């Protein structure tokens, strides 16, 4: 007989609202209160400690691994069986909101509380965790903690990554007290489920609170540095210039043209950083650095887009007499999620009488890393204002958060009772 549970929505909302005050700031652009909780900062450390307190209060066994990932276990009857793992992240971008990542972690803790309240014992252990530096904002590599535990990024490489001030991941883990001793290559779970706000308009357009995620599209991050030549803005003829700023700007325009052309499918391209150093009004820029974020649900079209961009930049640089260097910051292929776990989520939503849609994720998530070692799927939760995210305007209603977490709780319960 399938057991059905319902999470305490007020309790979940209360933890979401409490955690958002850690790292809170007043955002001048929106006039709203946002969250700035970059990985391994003091704010992140405080939020980590609060989550550990909630885990401990729920009677969970907490451990920290060598990349700072935190896991909390609710023991099952047969501890020799692989666990069912829930998780996400609690670090934010510099102009973040209260729900990105955090919903999956606090929702997972709420699942544990709900099972405790109902006095339910499961066959398998259930775990909830949060991964280090999912956003990639501070140390330049997204999904860092989950990529390390999945074995894609070696621990030594991750430890040596630096922020803009030269501080290393390892040094900051030590500083904030989250350099754990558990092995980073964790035991392989039976299944991994992640509940996350959609960060897009698909669910809102369909008029539903819940989405079942089919996979994550390909992501490519690159940094391009252009080396030109400084010269006088008034005396240097246009044809004699080696303008690094011009080349960087032309790349931005070409990326938009590529997206609009349709030649590369559903390509999305963003230049999130554009730096010409200490520019001067009357001096031609001698250097420019930009970051390029490409997304595509088709691996072949992603490769074609990268190849075209490379050829375009090479031709442009030659024409303008500048030199370019490239740095690969991150690259992940399309990650399909497990069909069997998706079906568990679908039947769970049906049993709860919650309508849903199936969708690909446009954003990267820890789930795409954990999908390598074990069966994985995600639950999306609708956001307001077209699902806007990475801004203080990010918002999901208590009902939407509750509905998504109800699906998470009951799917986890089903999986944790499987032999």
Describe the structure.
- The protein is an alpha/beta fold and 419 residues long.
- It has twelve helices and 15 strands.
- The protein has helices at 9-19, 42-57, 102-118, 144-149, 155-160, 169-176, 202-206, 244-261, 299-320, 339-351, 366-370, 398-416; strands at residues 24-26, 33-35, 61-64, 70-74, 84-88, 126-130, 191-197, 210-216, 218-227, 268-275, 287-296, 323-332, 335-336, 356-361, 376-381.
- Strands 3, 4, 5, 6, 7, 8, 13, 14 and 15 form a nine-stranded mixed sheet that branches. A four-stranded antiparallel sheet has the order 10-11-9-12, covered by helices on one side.
- β3 (61-64) and β4 form a beta hairpin.
- It is elongated and about 80 Å long.
- The mean pLDDT is 97.
- Give the helix/strand class: alpha/beta
What gap, in angstroms, lies between the N and C termini? 15 Å
Give, in order, the helices and strands. Answer: HEEHEEEHEHHHEHEEHEEHEEHEHEH
Dominant shape = elongated
Overall pLDDT level: 97
Please indicate the percent range of residues in DSSP E strands (runs of 2 or more). 15-25%
Q: Estimate the helix proportion, in percent.
A: 25-40%
Instruction: Supply Rg.
Output: 23 Å
Number of H- or I-type helical stretches = 12
| Low-confidence regions | none
Largest sheet: 9 strands, mixed
Number of strands: 15
Name the descriptors.
4-stranded antiparallel β-sheet; 35% helix
Helix and strand topology:
Elements: H1 9-19, E1 24-26, E2 33-35, H2 42-57, E3 61-64, E4 70-74, E5 84-88, H3 102-118, E6 126-130, H4 144-149, H5 155-160, H6 169-176, E7 191-197, H7 202-206, E8 210-216, E9 218-227, H8 244-261, E10 268-275, E11 287-296, H9 299-320, E12 323-332, E13 335-336, H10 339-351, E14 356-361, H11 366-370, E15 376-381, H12 398-416
Parallel strand pairs: 5-6, 5-7, 7-15, 8-14
Antiparallel strand pairs: 1-2, 3-4, 4-6, 8-13, 8-15, 9-11, 9-12, 10-11
